[in-house]
Prior knowledge:
alpha/beta, two-stranded parallel ribbon, 10 helices
Amino acid sequence: xxxxxxxxxxGMLGQDxxxxxxxxxxxxxASRSAxxxxxxxxxxxxxxxxxxxxxxxxxxxxxxDAESHEAEAFALNAVGAANLARAAREHGARMVQVSxxxxxxxxxxxxxxxxxxxxxxxxxxxxxxxxxxxVEAHCxxxxxxxxxxxxxxxxxxxxxxxxxxxxxxxTLSVVDDQRGQPxxxxxxxxxxxxxxxxxxxxxxxxxxxxxxxxxxxxxxxxFRQLGLDPxxxxxxxxDAFPRPAPRPAYSVLGHEGxxxxxxxxLPDWRESLAKALPSVVPxx
Length: 284
C-alpha cells in the first residue's frame, strides 16, 4: 500500500488528516515543522523518497503578519511547496498542495470556478498563488486543493473565538460584508482522502463547504446551535475593523470539479457545524 507523507501534521488540518488516514487504514508518516524544514530541498528529498503521496498542509498562515514579512511567507508557501513538488517528481510520488481563497481578488459576484484567473491582493495570497504555480510546474501529477474559513478542534479558529466571546460579552459586532464558506477541517481531510483514493483528475479542486454565508451569519448560526440568542450578534462592516491585509469581500468557491468527477462535494456548512461543535467547543 502506498505510504502517505503528511507535511504540517501538527496543524489543525494536518491533525484531522492523520486521523482520517488512520481511520481508513492508510499507512502514513506525520511530519511536523520540527521534523522537516521544507525550505531545505535536500531534506525534502530524503523524507519524500519513502512515500508515494505527499500532502502539504504546512504554510505561513499569519495573513496580517505576511504584509510585513512577505519574504518569510514566500519561503514557506512558495519555496517550500516547490521543494516538496520537485522531490515528489524526482521520486515518482504524487502531491496534494493545500491552497486558499486568497489567491483570488475577492471581488466576484458568483462562485469562483477552479480555472478562474488568479489575482491575489495580499502578501499571503501572492505567496500561496506562487506555491500553486510551483507545484503545478514541478509536479504535474498533483492536486491543488483550495479551501477557506477553516475551523477545527486542533487549533485556534473563529468558532472557538466566538464561543469564548459569547461568554464574555453581552453582544458581539461581526462583519456582514464578507461572504464565504465555513469549512470544517474534518470534512476537508475526508475530501483530500477521497480525491486521492478515487484517482480523481489532477489539477485544481475547491475544498470548501457547500452553501455560503457572511461572518455575521456564521456567528449567528454558532450562537443558535449553542443554544444562545443569535440576536446578540450585531452586523458591522469591514471598514470598522481595519487590518494590515485586505480581506476578500467574496470568497465563495465553485464546486464544478466535484460534479465533473462524479464525487460528492463537501456537506453544507450548517450541517457540518452541528457535527463539529462538540469537539471544537467541548466545554460549551
